[in-house]
Amino acid sequence: MFHYFDNAATTQVRPEAARAALEAMTAGWGNPSSVYSFGREAAARVRGWRADVSAALGCQPEELYFTSCGTESDNWAVYGSLEANRRKGKHILTTAIEHAAVLEPCKALEAQGYEVTRLQPDSQGRISPRQVADALRPDTVLVSMMLVNNEVGSILPVREAVQSVRAAGCPALIHCDAIQGFLKVPFTPRELGVDLLSVSGHKIHAPKGVGALYIRKGLKFPPLLRGGGQEGGLRSGTEATGQIAAFAAAAKLGRASMEADLARMAQLKDYLIRRLGEEVPRAKVLVEDGAPHILPVTLPGYKSEVVVRLLGDRGICLSSGSACHKGKPSHVFAALNLPKGERDGALRVSLSYDTTREDADALILGLKEAAGALFTSLS
């Protein structure tokens, strides 16, 4: 038996989602672009699945475009925004704690002559609306701000950022990476006021290999892939019906139980914070507020990668940051300006609707044993 606390990296596929994928691949496997009845039936299914995901997200079906993953959605939003605004300026505004799927395209664009402003967070991973307003320029063509940080769980002021951009009369398109926020905090794209918004299937108990990009109705946005004209002509390629079916099933179930799931995760997060204080006094919670499913903690003086391996040997799965870092230092924890000991010992605990009190107790015991068994670093 193992205890899984890395849901911000990926989630277990819901049985209902797996069954939906299997049915789409074995019974309804027609090409949605085909004109005969089997193809038309597949096209109707895709329309239904799109409606299910858009309902969970709170947008119109015609505003939702399926992609292969969250990274693709983020990349499309960044590069597409600059193409759409290519005559209006070359300044990009983002934050220093975005996912690499946003930061890496921005880095590549700098080499092409774009200027990038990366807003720095405070020690709690927060960005203030004032920072956004002060950094706007007449030539700002893209503002990209995540809703929930994937490593520390802080919730960023996306709605206020939108208000600042609009009040300044700035031509920027506004993109939100909501991959960690989808079904974890209440929002709709319209409430946030964004032009573009990215989500991913495998963060909400669908399989890997499917995501979506919200594109505000009325926005003329350039295609990502040109070809047969699928996804309204904006992302050509035969639809991945199995993954889309599973994404829809997971989104529909997640939407139905969201209120109860969030309350349960918040209670479990509070329990973990209290028990850590009682049983592992050396541990420190880095950010207590924020999304209910992410709890960043540190064992100051201990190397996080050593703690992760030790707990992994005990069947307890967690991470020292984003799975995409693959052992490299986290740019998010670095941006918080933590003391070196706290930064080196930083861990990310991330919950799901199916995380139990038994899991939490196993984690506390594992951290307690780790603190007692390991020697602190001299660094």
Helix and strand string, N-terminal first? EHHEHEHEHEHEHEEHEEHEHHEH
**Number of DSSP strand runs:** 12
Mean pLDDT: 94
The number of helical elements comes to 12
CATH architecture call of the largest domain:
3-Layer(aba) Sandwich
CATH superfamily of the largest domain: Type I PLP-dependent aspartate aminotransferase-like (Major domain)
Q: What is the CATH C-level name of the largest domain?
A: Alpha Beta
Mind telling me the C-alpha Rg? 21 Å
**Based on CA inertia axes, which overall geometry fits?**
globular
Low-confidence stretches: none
Could you say what the CATH topology of the largest domain is called?
A: Aspartate Aminotransferase, domain 2
* Strand-pairing-aware structural class: alpha/beta
Q: In angstroms, what separates the terminal alpha carbons?
A: 35 Å
| Strand content bin | 5-15%
- Count of spatially separate domains: 2
Helix content: 40-55%
Biggest sheet, open or closed, and with what strands and sense? 7 strands, mixed
Strand order in the sheet with the most strands: 2-8-7-6-5-3-4
